[in-house]
């Protein structure tokens, strides 16, 4: 509990500085003669959930890899706040179900930790005590929660979650989005989320960035849902769904 209080205080101090956790400007990436990222600019602030959406092949995962320093851009800059700690949950992590790997061992691959701390992280993401359980025995939803727990072991300033709900049913997706929001609220960390689950995304994020090689549109969920570029890619059903909230949203921000 004391460690969690220290973590929250550190993140709140970072938030008060007004400096983004991570900021990209005019990123360009070309692969095999194709422009994958075309002058992409994006920033994530402390305590903010920013969600990347876009069609398949839009460059979302590639952008995440550039932001994390795993892939160098051809031009443009990425600025990370000094001392930034990132917790990352990848889109896919293939583990042989026959591999004798316990939950505890899997978690400590992120960093060494005692069983008490590991148990606290499991509880934080809504998993029962299961440190000695085999990874291969977990359901899809349990495994996604475990990936989140593993990312939280780093005590991150920024959580980067790449398609964290793949293979999870609709009820499980809603619960995981609620959990991600609770983690953000409790820790005051920033969250960069990549997702294609648009109904849930638009209801559970602070800002949306729509990517199609370049940034087509960006802003609050309400405004993005009404943007012609977004509607061209995903249709108008989201604008219709958000119509009752648009006036209230603008009034709240005014």
Explain what you see.
The protein contains 10 helices and 9 strands. With 254 residues, it is α/β, with parallel strands linked by helices. Residues 244-254 have low confidence and may be disordered. The protein has a 6-stranded mixed sheet with strand order 5-6-7-3-8-9, with helices on both faces. α4 crosses α5 (140-152). The protein has 2 domains: 2-85 and 157-253, Rossmann fold (3-Layer(aba) Sandwich); 94-154, no CATH class.
CATH homologous superfamily of the largest domain, by name? P-loop containing nucleotide triphosphate hydrolases
Q: Spans of 5+ residues with little confidence (pLDDT < 50)?
A: 244-254
SS element count, helices: 10
Q: Share of helix among residues?
A: 40-55%
**In percent terms, what proportion of residues is strand?**
15-25%
Order of helices and strands: HEEEHEEHHHEHEHEEHHH
Q: In the CATH scheme, what's the topology name of the largest domain?
A: Rossmann fold
Overall pLDDT level = 85
Task: Describe the main β-sheet briefly.
Answer: 6 strands, mixed
Radius of gyration from the alpha-carbon trace, in angstroms = 19 Å
β-strand number? 9
End-to-end separation: 37 Å
Report the CATH architecture of the largest domain. 3-Layer(aba) Sandwich
The total domain count is 2
**Coarse morphology:** globular
Q: In which order are the strands of the major sheet placed?
A: 5-6-7-3-8-9
- The structure class reads alpha/beta
What is the fold's blueprint, element by element?
Blueprint: H1 2-17, E1 22-31, E2 34-44, E3 49-53, H2 60-67, E4 75-80, E5 86-89, H3 103-108, H4 115-124, H5 140-152, E6 158-162, H6 170-187, E7 190-194, H7 198-203, E8 207-212, E9 214-219, H8 221-225, H9 228-234, H10 237-253
Parallel strand pairs: 3-7, 3-8, 5-6, 6-7
Antiparallel strand pairs: 1-2, 1-4, 8-9
Helix pairs in contact: 4-5
């Amino acid at each position: 509990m004391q460690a969690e209080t220290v973590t929250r205080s550190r993140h709140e101090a970072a938030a008060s500085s007004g400096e983004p956790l991570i900021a990209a400007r005019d990123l360009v990436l070309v692969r095999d003669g194709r422009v994958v990222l075309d002058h992409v600019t994006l920033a994530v602030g402390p305590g903010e959930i920013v969600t990347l959406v876009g069609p398949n092949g839009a460059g979302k995962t590639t952008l995440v890899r550039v932001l994390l320093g795993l892939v160098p851009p051809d031009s443009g800059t990425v600025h990370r706040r000094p001392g930034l700690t990132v917790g990352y949950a990848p889109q896919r992590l293939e583990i042989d179900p026959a591999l004798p790997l316990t939950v505890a061992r899997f978690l400590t691959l992120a960093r060494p930790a005692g069983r008490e701390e590991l148990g606290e992280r499991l509880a934080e993401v809504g998993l029962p005590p299961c440190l000695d359980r085999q990874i291969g025995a977990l359901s899809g939803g349990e495994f996604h929660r475990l990936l989140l727990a593993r990312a939280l072991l780093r005590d991150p300033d920024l959580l980067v979650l790449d398609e964290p709900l793949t293979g999870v049913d609709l009820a499980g997706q809603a619960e995981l989005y609620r959990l991600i929001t609770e983690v953000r609220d409790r820790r005051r960390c920033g969250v960069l989320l990549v997702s294609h689950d648009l109904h849930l995304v638009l209801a559970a994020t602070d800002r949306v960035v729509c990517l199609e090689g370049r940034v087509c549109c960006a802003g609050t969920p309400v405004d993005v849902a009404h943007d012609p570029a977004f509607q061209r890619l995903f249709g108008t059903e989201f604008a219709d769904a958000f119509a009752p909230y648009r006036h209230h949203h603008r009034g709240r921000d005014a």
